[in-house]
Write a sequence for this structure.
């Protein structure tokens, strides 16, 4: 797998990267491979609230639309406008193509290390 | 092939409309300043253009069309003949009721038939499609709950095997859609259901048989649990073909239902529509029904607490005539025999294919079954999409692909009752031939189709860079 070791993951295939108190959220390389070529992304707006374990957006491939769940509860500080313009960036590099940056984090889902996540997707 | 705009020659045209001899006295505001840029083409050329397009497509009249969950059954020609009768075609909904007594009587009779089939007490024909039927049903639930003052009930539970329209309709109706997991047997996971039921539950939307083609064996427990929690049960009639005349949704605990007349009741589906998605309900919901009805042949009345109108007048009236004709043609013995034969045909195909194409849930199915190409994909790198494309080379419409979402590399096959044993045998042979090709020369399957008017289309490019209008070169 191409998912960086230093990130944390959810069992629903999102990654989270902490930048101080804030966090970037995206989907894993495994997730983008399973979904296939992505054609659209829906993201929340800046200042929207996201809730741990609940959907904050979705990704659409030619096969299906899938929810993207937030690993944390907090407020959206930034959204990645680039992936709204060109969803294929997620297929090219799922780690660089972050979805949202979240601040004011009050709650966090149970997260997995890269090794634990690998075991889940291999099992 | 050229687009109709590319065939357009300025000044060429048709003279079907006489020159307007009525003075135009509309106010300025709605006037166009420029003429609409319609293609200019003779009737002869236009006929050829559309015939040529039709030849490049594949419909039920061209060959086998086992599109799962869509019930692409044969549309009997007598339906069209009845719907073309001048007495139905040349009437207007604003005519005085005493001049359209027959038309209103048919609506009432069709309501009686569908009530008998579903066990419901009242039906509205306003919804023009299945999803609008869902939306109507949810608005009935909402109106009822709000009338009782239960404003906190804003959650609709939807199994993860449901059609995508279910959560969409729930959201459109102002509810929050909550996903319920399926268990290892493809049924609703009862523990997950219980954990989501509570004072916020407005209702459950369920397709039964579900989208993996299985009748939920816990159905009585499911509807009881939802009712005990204070919610209502919505029956998505998409798969009614499997049980009509045998199981009545009202008898297994459902309060509200929509039916797809364009699936189950043999009116054209897809481009041949329009659809009709009547919504039925138990008597306690009927005060909220939309639209007007004329039961006595004299006056139109609206339900006491009606939610309003979903469409104009009585929905797609002529489509309802076709469904009415279908039910009269079948009669009370014919209706259940449709369901039995639909189930028999699906099981026949499943049994003849499951040794090479693993079935998602290996048990007796209802009207459709789902195979998973996951193992083949892992071993030979041939996907459900590749197999679907290979079927095109054999003159068959592919089954539904990549649905339901709970099955990986899914193909969902619904033969319907109107296909003969010979057609099923041919299709089984095609599936087996393709499997042989996957094993021996997968590159051919991966490169299919080769015999269709266009080869494999770039779906990703089409979605990412859609061209939705003609470019006039400006």
């Amino acid at each position: 797998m191409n998912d960086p070791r230093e990130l944390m993951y959810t069992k629903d295939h999102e990654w989270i990267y902490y930048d101080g108190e804030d966090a970037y959220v995206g989907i894993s390389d495994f997730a983008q491979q399973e979904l296939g070529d992505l054609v659209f992304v829906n993201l929340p707006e800046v200042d929207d609230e996201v809730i741990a374990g609940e959907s904050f957006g979705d990704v659409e491939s030619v096969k299906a639309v899938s929810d993207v769940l937030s690993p944390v509860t907090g407020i959206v500080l930034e959204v990645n406008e680039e992936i709204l313009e060109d969803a294929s960036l997620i297929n090219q590099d799922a780690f660089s193509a972050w979805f949202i940056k979240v601040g004011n984090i009050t709650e966090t889902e149970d997260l997995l290390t890269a090794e634990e996540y690998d075991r889940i997707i291999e099992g | 092939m050229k687009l109709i705009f590319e065939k357009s020659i300025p000044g060429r045209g048709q003279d079907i409309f006489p020159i307007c001899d009525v003075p135009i006295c509309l106010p300025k505001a709605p006037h166009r300043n420029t003429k609409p840029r319609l293609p200019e083409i003779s009737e002869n050329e236009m006929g050829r253009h559309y015939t040529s397009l039709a030849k490049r497509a594949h419909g039920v009249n061209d060959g086998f069309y086992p599109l799962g969950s869509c019930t692409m059954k044969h549309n009997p020609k007598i339906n069209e003949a009845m719907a073309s009768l001048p007495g139905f075609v040349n009437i207007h909904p604003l005519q005085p009721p005493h001049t359209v007594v027959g038309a209103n009587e048919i609506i009432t009779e069709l309501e009686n038939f569908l009530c008998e089939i579903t066990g419901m007490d009242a039906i509205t024909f306003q919804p023009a499609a299945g999803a609008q039927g869902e939306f109507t049903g949810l608005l009935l639930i909402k109106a009822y709950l709000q009338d009782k003052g239960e404003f906190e009930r804003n959650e609709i539970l939807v199994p993860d095997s449901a059609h995508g329209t279910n959560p969409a309709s729930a959201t459109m109706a102002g509810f929050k859609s909550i996903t319920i997991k399926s268990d290892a047997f493809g049924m609703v996971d009862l523990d997950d259901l219980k954990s989501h039921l509570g004072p916020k539950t407005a209702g459950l939307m369920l397709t039964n048989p579900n989208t993996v083609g299985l009748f939920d064996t816990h159905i009585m427990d499911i509807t009881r649990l939802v009712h005990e929690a204070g919610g209502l049960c919505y029956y998505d009639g998409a798969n009614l073909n499997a049980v009509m005349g045998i199981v009545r949704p009202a008898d297994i605990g459902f309060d509200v239902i929509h039916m797809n007349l364009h699936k189950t009741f043999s009116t054209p589906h897809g481009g041949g529509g329009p659809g009709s998605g009547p919504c039925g309900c138990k008597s306690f919901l009927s005060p909220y029904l939309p639209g007007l009805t004329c039961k006595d042949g004299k006056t139109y009345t609206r339900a006491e607490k009606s939610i309003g109108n979903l469409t104009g007048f009585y929905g797609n009236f002529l489509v309802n005539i076709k469904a009415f004709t279908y039910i009269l043609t079948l009669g009370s013995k014919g209706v259940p025999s449709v369901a039995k034969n639909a189930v028999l045909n699906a099981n026949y195909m499943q049994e003849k294919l499951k040794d090479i194409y693993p079935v998602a849930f290996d048990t007796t199915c209802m009207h459709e079954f789902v195979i998973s190409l996951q193992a083949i994909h892992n071993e030979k790198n041939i996907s459900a999409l590749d197999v679907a494309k290979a079927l095109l080379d054999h003159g068959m419409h592919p089954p539904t692909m990549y649905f339901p979402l709970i099955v990986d590399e899914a193909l969902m096959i619904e033969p319907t009752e109107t296909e003969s044993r010979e057609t099923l045998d041919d299709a089984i042979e095609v599936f087996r031939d393709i499997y042989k090709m996957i094993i021996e020369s997968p590159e051919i399957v991966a490169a299919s189709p080769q015999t269709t008017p266009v080869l494999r289309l770039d779906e990703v490019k089409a979605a990412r860079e859609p061209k939705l209008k003609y470019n006039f070169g400006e």
